[in-house]
Amino acid sequence: MSNDDQESIIADEGALGRLVKSAAPRSGSLVCAVDTEADSLHRYRESLCLIQFAVGDRCVLIDPLAIQDMGALAGLLAGSLVWMHGADYDMTMLRRQFGSLPETVYDTQIGARLLGARKFGLADLVLHYFGIELSKSSQKADWGKRPLSPKMVEYALNDVRYLMPMGEKIVSELKAKGRFEWFDESCVAARKKVLERDDSREEAWRIQGSGRLDRRGLAFLKAIWQWRDTEAEAWDRPSFMVATNRVLVDWSVALADGGQITLPPYFRPDRVRRFREAIAAVESSPESEYPDRPRGRRRRRDAGFDRRLDLLLKKRDDVSKGLDIDGSLIAPRASLESIAAEECDPAELLLNWQRACLGLEG
């Protein structure tokens, strides 16, 4: 690793303190850029492995695996305006690490989409705005390993290197189109969503696809989900490396129908034995212990529902075409269905700018 690479990595509290002191503004709020890397593709319990930080012309990597007390950084970010890209995941990681989020988080992905971008990955936008093609070679790297390779260091630094100048360009275009207030409101809502999200694992076994299972199928799904979780924890690998969610649902359907499961040949005998024990426990349990199917809210579809929904969809699609942005940004179909069914007030589902586009301000 070169000296430049070493200087770009903050790996002790003293270096972090000096960085924070040099970055702290003498007046006003700090404007900076942040990205994060975790080991969710390689470990059972996801850990924050790297924080990329850019301020002014300086880009550094902060190593939370090496620094025990990250409070100085948390304090610096608390009152800052922070640029991120695809910020939901990064905000989630920062919230878990610090218990809070920066005062303002602006997302270049949200801004680009409000400008009409159909390709809005970071590499797509860097190519569009700066004509630079970023390497994706370290996208699935194990960020929990040390030392970081020079290639990984460069990849990580590039994740924040262009965010602030790109943000300036995006803000300029948004203001020119009269959409900056839309952007600001959308970013505020995205930050609030992360802060209010419940990260508890209660009934985490009710995965996508479980809605088609009857109570017996749900009992099998719950049992084999718990089996998979235990296996993944003991192995210290992500649960999908044991079996994917789709496989769990397919197994549950087959078991509920009285079928047999053929497990992958690479499963160790002890893993197969524990799987069979989990299945046997369900087969010997009374039906009264099966999980209940969730009670879906029955939608009131009166004679005018289809007409109201068609009008809302047409209005949305006409507006999105005129603005040259994706219609789902203005309103997802599910939200429009709830509004058409008169299940809730539009203000409960849509932002101010979205309601204004659809003529639903009142």
What does this structure look like?
- The structure is a single chain.
- This protein has 362 residues and is α/β, with parallel strands linked by helices.
- The protein folds into three domains: 194 residues, Ribonuclease H-like superfamily/Ribonuclease H (Nucleotidyltransferase, domain 5, 2-Layer Sandwich), CATH 3.30.420.10; 80 residues, DNA polymerase, domain 1 (Orthogonal Bundle); 54 residues, no CATH class.
- Helix content is 51%, strand content 9%.
- The protein is built from 17 helices and six strands.
- The protein has a six-stranded mixed sheet.
- The longest helix has 21 residues.
- The radius of gyration is 24 Å and the shape is flat.
- The N and C termini lie far apart (61 Å).
- The N terminus is likely disordered.
CATH topology of the largest domain: Nucleotidyltransferase, domain 5
Number of domains: 3
Q: DSSP strand (E) fraction?
A: 5-15%
* CATH class category label of the largest domain: Alpha Beta
Number of helices: 17
- Shape, principal axes of CA atoms: flat
Question: In what order do the strands lie side by side in the largest sheet?
Answer: 1-4-3-2-5-6
The structural class is alpha/beta
Name given to the CATH architecture of the largest domain: 2-Layer Sandwich
The low-confidence runs, each spanning 5 or more residues with pLDDT under 50, are 1-6
Strand count? 6
Span between termini = 61 Å
Question: Quick check: average pLDDT?
Answer: 94
Rg on CA atoms, Å: 24 Å
Give, in order, the helices and strands. Answer: HEHEEEHEHEHHHHHHHHHHHHH
Specify the biggest β-sheet: 6 strands, mixed
Helix content: 40-55%
